[in-house]
Prior knowledge:
Layout: E1 4-5, H1 12-32, H2 54-60, H3 69-80, E2 83-85, E3 92-96, E4 118-124, H4 140-162, E5 189-195, E6 200-207, E7 214-216, E8 240-241, H5 247-250, E9 256-260, E10 263-269, E11 275-287, E12 290-304, E13 312-315, H6 323-326, H7 328-331, E14 334-338, E15 347-351, E16 361-364, E17 366-367, E18 375-377, E19 379-384, E20 387-388, E21 400-402, E22 409-411, H8 413-425, E23 432-433, E24 442-443, E25 450-454, E26 456-460, E27 465-467, E28 474-475, E29 478-479, E30 481-483, E31 491-493, H9 495-498, E32 502-506, E33 511-515
Parallel strand pairs: 2-27, 6-13, 7-12, 21-31, 22-30
Antiparallel strand pairs: 1-17, 3-25, 4-5, 4-15, 5-6, 5-11, 7-13, 8-11, 9-10, 10-11, 11-12, 14-15, 14-32, 16-33, 18-21, 19-20, 19-26, 23-24, 26-27, 28-29, 32-33
Helix pairs in contact: 1-3
Amino acid sequence: xxxxxxxxxxxxxxxxxxxxxxxxxxxxxxxxxxxxxxxxxxxxxxxxxxxxxxxxxxxxxxxxxxxxxxxxxxxxxxxxxxxxxxxxxxxxxxxxxxxxxxxxxxxxxxxxxxxxxxxxxxxxxxxxxxxxxxxxxxxxxxxxxxxxxxxxxxxxxxxxxxxxxxxxxxxxxxxxxxxxxxxxxxxxxxxxxxxxxxxxxxxxxxxxxxxxxxxxxxxxxxxxxxxxxxxxxxxxxxxxxxxxxxxxxxxxxxxxxxxxxxxxxxxxxxxxxxxxxxxxxxxxxxxxxxxxxxxxxxxxxxxxxxxxxxxxxxxxxxxxxxxxxxxxxxxxxxxxxxxxxxxxxxxxxxxxxxxxxxxxxxxxxxxxxxxxxxxxxxxxxxxxxxxxxxxxxxxxxxxxxxxxxxxxxxxxxxxxxxxxxxxxxxxxxxxxxxxxxxxxxxxxxxxxxxxxxxxxxxxxxxxxxxxxxxxxxxxxxxxxxxxxxxxxxxxxxxxxxxxxxxxxxxxxxxxxxxxxxxx
Length: 519
């Protein structure tokens, strides 16, 4: 399967910004007679980017004294408009090990609602901000085991699409879980919504890798325990099941499951063998102060393989059934979220995110015609300690999937090998430690209260540079990246690397944006 740029992309800002940067770089180069050479954050006047480190900017300030101040300001702003900073331009950053731990008290941050948009708080399911009141956190080993199942599921789904299918994962392709709840337990972030009239509060996991949303409903012959009351469709005056002959039922495709009492039935199977089935329906959905009428969702009456306190799942994928597609007429085809740095702080989910908002660096969005669910991007390079690694462009040719549900970023083998080697070289002051599951670049931080780590930046197509937050580099005592078995498989940008960034999915505009320090 091939990921291609979204044909609806307006794409112009990225190209024009690069051209503009070349003009500014040429002017500065001529005015200061600075010889073009490689440096920490890329070559001045290069065709791809125009970046300059803060220290080099200061060093050249005297040489630029003859250049008008306005031109210098425009140059500085132009160069940095393609960089999302979670820190500054230093090669190393100091990280307090306490900052990697969650506090026992919730640190709630209210997101500022945008005009014409719907914004709801977003929380980590295991933190003190979570309405689920889950006291026991999974071990790192268990979390990584679940995460590997999630990544394998995405790869299978994409591979099925590449072979000409619709990307569905059949029961025969799945591994039956040895423990209940494997799929939902890989998802970490949740929102609280209200469904029905009168409304019933439902706590739902969010997932950019799913299209069909669902909640558990009465009567339920096989339901997992949940913190909220079960939704009772018979008590809602606005509830309506879809008929088997409806166009909405036909659009379910692989998720369609025939008829029962002339009502449309759905089924969603996940990669670990878990599944949900019931009646495909519509009802009123409240997102904060915003109301969505005729919200389509699965009313789950039989669930298999779940052991989770949430009411269900909210699909944010790119397919027809997702919340994003359903609300496009009201909020447009853009949404964003910010995942907090730790589980003791909060983030947000916004439908109708401002596509023209400032502060974002953007890269073209890639989509597959076979599997519309996933949102793709393409890495061009990786920087460690301010230096760009020598990775051939062919290593990134398969593309990467942006995913809210995968924890650890998966890179193609060649790219990960280069990243791991460079990071280990920058961490020589710390003893190596044994691998932890899929994480094989680990260190012994015994006796340390803070550590000094190399900065890591991801460079995406179009020249968008994302300088990762320190919490997006280290997980436990290991580099928070893993490698694929080869270069031909898709990479996955996981949620650890997305922390503290507002990640914008501008589906209509055909781009993915990053804004640092948003939560």
